[in-house]
Here is the input.
Amino acid sequence: MIYKLPITLEDGQVFESLPITSVSFSKVSGYDGNGLRVTNLVGFSNGDFLKECPNCGQIKYSRCFGLRKTVNRDQSNCISCRSNSRV
Ligand SMILES: [Zn+2]
Here is the structure.
């Protein structure tokens, strides 16, 4: 879990606290409690939000993406895609 609650999504969902059960939903973006841009969320499971990587198409935990704190948003590509594309 790399975000700060509450998380407000563009489809109207607001997470004031972490879901107790796993949830899944259509891919959506929004903002966390610090005004950080969160992107490509598709659900929640085992204490972390799930994100879809637009590069490899895999669904992974948000911690597998990380944050870009300098630009106040999360990373869109997952860590393994970013390390694979590094020259
Ligand atoms: Zn990826």
